[in-house]
């Protein structure tokens, strides 16, 4: 994003960019709807005509081995590759054979912004550890048709590593057809923002762990960090946890400048300093 038109709490219409109202420009790129109503946006576009993407389902019996391998393998992959490992069940849709509907499985979600042969080469070791494929495929498709998708976040935490005991606990859920666990690798270019980047919090996290239900037996091993991304935050009362302390202090100062009475408060609220 390079420019935005914003209606502020006092009714002014201002343009926020690197050159005009730069403090507001910084804040709205990660600070949610706390500073005004954005009525137009201007973006710089980058050409990504096609990606190699999809979801491949494997048997669940090698879940622990696959996650342990994923932990090390994901540290070596290029920035062009986005992946997640999901313990879930095969959907009951026409895309999959009827005999597999509802089968507990390990899914690997992939989006690679590059050539198919390079993607397959990088993914081959992970797929070999996961074992025989049950269903699904990767295809080269227009970028606009691709979607990593996501898991409804009843629980979400950002973690820097995946310890063996946590992986083993995840693997114990293999017989539970109701619980979905998604481990998504972050890092990459997102972890190395350029100068002037907005206040997107906790960019350095290596993984997100998302669980779509409460699982009491995991409480002792999740070792919650309390960090989150505002995009995944269901509880508006925890908005502060989505930012670093320095960014939060700066956001509160910008809030004071543009909305000192906290008019925009029905959101993931940042209180004025």
UniProtKB/TrEMBL annotation:
Residues in Berberine/berberine-like domain copies: 238-271
Alphabetical UniProt keywords: FAD, Flavoprotein, Oxidoreductase
Transmembrane residue ranges: none
Superkingdom of the source species: Bacteria
Keyword Cell membrane applies: no
Cofactor(s) of this protein: FAD
Translocase keyword on record: no
Database matches in Gene3D superfamilies: 3.30.465.10, 3.40.462.20
Homology family: Belongs to the oxygen-dependent FAD-linked oxidoreductase family.
Protein name: Berberine/berberine-like domain-containing protein
